[in-house]
Amino acid sequence: CLSNHINSFNGEASGAEVIYSIYGNKDLASKLLRSITDLGMPPRRVFYRTLPNDPAQDYYFMHRQTGDVETFIIEYGFADSPQDTRRLQSDWKKYAEAVVKVMTEHINKPYTPPKEEKKEDPTIMPKEEEKEDSKIPKEIKESPWKYEGIIYLHEQGILNDVDRWTKEINEPMPVWAVTLLLERMHKSLQKKG
Asked: What is the mean pLDDT of the chain?
């Protein structure tokens, strides 16, 4: 069981750590930590912790509640450390993938890296269907489920300006708009009921 986290400690700490359960494997925990630190996150520590009044029980709820399962809490870095935050923002996928690789090796399964995202070559002309796709506004391509909601509300007669809400699809809705939306939904439900 892998439990993925980002740590916090009043801006006074930095680095990755792995906490393993009393049923865990220190060597595997060390490999997990090394996989992250090899990519640039500083190492902090590998450890386990028991309840002060019962050394036969894990301190962390996650570990206690998984029984004798090998459980690892992976702290990838500290959210309140500016250096860690920069690393996490730019390299979190690499860190996560490094952990996946270690685990696949641990369970003797072949590791298959993720497919690399294609980077468009501006010198190549897009295919015909890609040209059509380029007519779809960026906001809709990035948030199709939000757009689906806008269309649904429009079809129900609750929203009337689809273009406006599509352009502002990623903006927070103002309180007055939420109030109006709720009022219109209420009236719509009353008509149906």
From this structure: 83
**Which residue has 């399962």 as its token pair?**
69
Taking a C-beta distance cutoff of 8 angstroms, is the pair 88, 77 a contact? yes
- What DSSP designation does 42 have? P
Spatial separation of the C-alpha atoms in residues 110 and 113, rounded to whole Å: 10
- Does the global pTM surpass 0.70? no
With b meaning 16 or more CB within 10 Å and e meaning fewer, what string describes 151-165?
A: eebeeeebbeeeeeb
Longest dimension (CA), the chain: 69
Q: What burial letters (b/e) apply to 94-121, b meaning 16+ CB within 10 Å?
A: ebbbbbbebbeeeeeeeeeeeeeeeeee
Confidence of residue 68 (pLDDT cuts 50, 70, 90): confident
**Would you call 53 exposed, middle or buried from its count of C-beta atoms within 10 A (0-12, 13-18, 19+)?**
exposed
Decide if 61 contacts 5 (C-beta within 8 A). no
23/63 Cα distance (integer angstroms): 9
* Nearest in space to 101 (alpha carbons), one of 24, 162, 35: 35
Q: Which two tokens stand for residue 69?
A: 């399962």
Sign of CA dihedral 91, 97, 103, 105: negative
CA dihedral of residues 54, 56, 57, 63 (deg, nearest 10): 160
Short-list 72, 8, 16, CA closest to 39 = 16
